[in-house]
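Worked example (supplementary).
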Amino acid sequence: MSKSKDKRIKKLKRKRIWPSILGLFLIASVFFVFMLIVLVTSVVDVVDDKITSSYEASSHIVRRHVEPNVENLEQSYEGILTDIALNDEVEAVSIVRAGEEEWSSNGRYPDQSVRLTYMELFNEENGYVDYDIIIEEDEQNVVVKQGDEYSVNKGFLKKIDIKTILSQLDKTNEEKYVPLAALKLWYVFPVEDMEINVLNHIAVYSYDVVLLIFVALMFAALLVIFIIYYIFTIIGLIASQSRVTKVLYTDIVTGGENWLSFVRKGGRLIKRNYGNRNFYAVIHFRMEKYRSFCTCFGVKDGEELLERFYNVLKKQVRRKEAMAHYEQADFALLLKYDEVEELKSRIENIEKLLNNITPNIKLYFSSGVCLVENRSQDIEELFNNAMAATALLDEDAEIRIAFFDIEMKKQQLWERKVEDEMERALKNKEFKVYLQPKYSAKEERMAGAEALVRWVHPVEGFIPPNRFIPIFEKNGFILQLDDYMIEEVARQQAKWIGEGKEVVPISVNVSRAHFTREDLAEHICGLVDRFQIPHDVIELELTESAFFDDKQVLLNTVKKLRDHGFIVSMDDFGAGYSSLNSLKELHIDVLKIDADFFRGADSLERGMKIVSNVIELAKKLEMKIVAEGIESREQVDFLATQNCDLIQGYYFAKPMPIEEFEEKYKEANN
Ligand code: C2E
Ligand code: CA
Ligand code: CA
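After joint prediction of all chains, the assembly is encoded as:
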């Protein structure tokens, strides 16, 4: 598969799902973190409010009962006890004077040693201890645990690791409103030489949490909606992706697998399974004359037939094998085999099964087989080889299975080499003009010649045209080569005319590929006119086959060429599928009778009869006759009696280089 094709398929199949999933996770986690921050700040706010309120209650007791009565504290105790009883938050008050425990509402004091540590620390750092409390051993934390009571530095509350507070919240059942959690804190108020310690009971009740739960639920709901929306988007993406893949690998006509799927699957099978007693063959399987079938029964029926073929073939394909519709009535198969004979009979059996589909119509199939030789072979290349084998099957061959072999491989390599080198060869003038003389039948004088190309390759040496012309005809290079030949012949004629020599018309072959351009006549004029020679020294040989391409272009071009004074001849008349009808419409100057009429011992007599009648017919249509491929004296004599005009063949001369031709011409005309 070409790289760009591969890229295009990959682009179509590219999964855009991962970025979406990643995006989902990313956005969900950002959302989650945001939610957590909001929740935590809410919790901190609630706890902070509670602590502030309990601190204010504590400081209120100190300001109301202790500070006005510093001298006589005894008077305050009752007030303190009443406030404690009225207050939900304050649990106990104790007074320590000069390090001595003096009084406590319920006999409890904060732990002296820890409190002292804290006091010292704060004295050192701040110089003045305002209020506040005690520090834990790590000194960073402002919370200290004394049994089940905690002390917290209010001023430092923001620094408190909220987790520590929450983890230290004690569950308790002591209150009338059962709190969810409770925290006991000592506040310490220095008043003159005393420290007033107030033990607070900070409880978190369920109604405190309701708001938090509400906020959390809101966020959770949003998060769930968001995740569901995203999941649906991703499912949609996956579905559309699998739809693209399905369309990519489905054949429209049969509804089965298509060529692309075959390449992917088959390629993988060969790569993974070839060897270890698994031998594979790639098969190009074709129904012959599908077009005729469609013409008779309609395209719809034709496509239905292909669908049924597909279904039958599908059933014949075993595990680790592959099959697909290629194009028109062509199928691609990748089958395993042990013996070639067994493979052949399997293919024959498939043909039989397919023929059963239409009991009243006999169908014909061809198969080209290319055996896989190693696991690194490219399946498209293998199928191409299989097709090359099918193409070589003779139309009327009895056995319609052909194997791609070494000879074909060689031919393929040769074609590639020719294609690689043809441009360079043309530039380097490796293509040489050879001339084969044409003789008049009666006087046996040289009266014309045909230009035939030869490739003199720097390494391969002399290459005859049948080894490269068919390749050029396939790839279109023949257009350039024929132009080159016309120019070379025109150049040669101009040279001879310039030297005052008598010249004979030289014919050049014009491939049928030229007859697609409507300005062909003008194009040829352009090529020849550069050399300023009369047009009638150039003859253009075209084959009847061009008649079947674009008849109108051919007819117009021939007319224009003759109007411009060129001689036009029909080459190989009678070879292949010829139609006398073409002579009716095509006004040409010369008819070249194909060499085949003079071959074959059995049919020679009939051939001669046809030749003499064709000559008669041509005369009536005012055409000249050239007999090609004449090799014997008898043939020459026969043609002379039949009023044939010119003879071209080995009997008189083979194609030769221009210098040799010049010599021969001099000899013949002296
Ligand atoms: P063609 O145009 O029919 O040319 C006649 C072929 O018959 C030539 O083969 C010639 O060498 C061969 N021939 C002539 N007399 C005899 C004979 O007595 N006995 C036998 N056995 N053969 C004879 P060549 O040169 O090998 O060319 C083969 C074909 O290649 C040509 O057939 C023509 O179709 C094509 N060709 C050659 N040169 C060109 C060209 O420049 N342009 C195009 N388009 N085709 C060319
Ligand atoms: Ca010819
Ligand atoms: Ca010919």
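Two points are worth noting when inspecting this output. DSSP finds 20 helices and 21 strands in the chain. Confidence is low (pLDDT under 50) at residues 116-176.
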